[in-house]
Design brief:
This protein is mainly alpha-helical. Helix content is 73%, strand content 0%. It has helices at residues 2-11, 14-26, 28-31, 35-46, 50-61, 64-72, 76-86, 89-99. Helix 1 (2-11) runs parallel beside helix 4 and helix 4 runs parallel beside helix 7 (76-86). The protein is globular. 29% of the residues are buried.
Length: 113
């Protein structure tokens, strides 16, 4: 199922993509606690406009336990990179503070590209 959702996020029209990402946002707490759900969130962070990605990224940051699980998933590096590319200001700094001292993420760039 998660692969289908990822493919849909990449290939459907904007109107349907908006609806699908809205569903991802509604179910973020449940999705974030499963490796397959992390893949869906990761795809949603890639296939929306900046404003929507920022809102989704802030939702991810809102729960440190949920974020810790996501970062520990097989997509942790990709999620961190997408969050760093998306977040600005205080959100970006909060993410960096959460990552500080974690050797898995020391090699990632610290600033938006």
């Amino acid at each position: 199922g998660n692969f289908v959702v990822q493919c849909l996020l990449q290939n459907i029209a904007d109107k349907q993509r908006i609806r699908l990402v809205d569903l991802v946002e509604q179910h973020l707490p449940e999705l974030a606690l499963r490796a397959t759900g992390c893949a869906v969130i990761c795809a949603a962070l890639e296939h929306r406009d900046l404003e929507d990605r920022c809102m989704l990224a802030e939702m991810v940051l809102a729960d440190s336990d949920r974020l810790a699980f996501m970062l520990g998933s097989r997509l942790g590096d990709t999620i961190v990179a997408r969050l760093l590319d998306t977040l600005e200001g205080a959100g970006h700094q909060r993410l960096l503070a959460l990552l500080e001292g974690n050797p898995k993420f020391e090699a990632l760039p610290q600033r938006r590209s």
